[in-house]
Amino acid sequence: MWWAIGCDGATRRRRAYEYQYVNVQNILVVYFSQSGQLERIARTIASPLDAAEDVQVDYLRLEPEPAYPFPWGFFSFLDAFPESVYLDPPRLRPFGLAPDRRYDAIVLAYTVWFLSPAPPITGFLKSEEGRRLLAGTPVITVTACRNMWLSAQEEVKRMLVDAGARHCDHVALIDQGSSLATFFTTPRWMLTGRKDRWLRVFPRPGVSESEIAGSVRFGRALLAALRRGELDGMRPALAGLGAVRMDDRLLASERIGRRSFRIWGRLLRRVGGPGSPRRKPVLVIYLVFLVAMIVVVVPPSMLIRTLLRPFGRERMARERAYYEQPSGSGTERLGDFSG
To answer: Quick one: 2-246+325-337 is in which CATH superfamily?
Structure first.
């Protein structure tokens, strides 16, 4: 056909869909993944959309310049802390998208660094091209992290509002294992790249395989909403699918950690820029402080919050409803899209 002349395979398929289906829907999946886990999650969620002939899915893998190492070096990992907390956007390679390209919805998948969105996601949200793509577009956010994502999601939501996007859904997938176990397994994974069981005691780091496989339900629900014309940013498409579950015991710890991160981050930025040798002694002091805070402050704050829970049920219910929006933790529709 005329629309396929001189085109590569992907373009031919896209144009064939657009030729055959007048109402072809265009979806953009944006992600930054070092270990590959988040990319798997993003592609699993998008797989029902990718397989649909009336949907065209484009993938945008964000690539910072210079690239962040993985596995991380000890000091390079800590050195990324101040800029992450203060939402300094890194330089990104060109996206390679057509300048006039528009999308019916965007899936934005990100990891959490130091209670903040990973810097490449910040770079996308603050970039001129990213803001053009986001303006007026329904956005589904997806995060995969150890266990604390509330502060990072608040920052992402603020940047989406600034870009004029319509945030319609959120999915949060949490690493397997207890908070104590992931306190050891996650840093080991980041610093060595190893995902095996450690000492036959600790679970594998990262989101469980069953959780990753099960995330396909979100893609099925998005496809159904897209075909009904309901993926409009005005209502959640993933409600009732167990998309988000807030652990209210960690809220106080996040707030304390967020305040201390900003104080230490400001100090480190004044000492020197990224990679500055002058940062190293301060980073060592910061690490000692961080470990002490996690060991000394976090357990008592969680215990106190647990003890006070019977006296603050209404307040906790309001907090849970706020942080779990828009998709919520309900599971009443699981049977419709699982299996």
So the answer is: Flavodoxin domain (3.40.50.360)
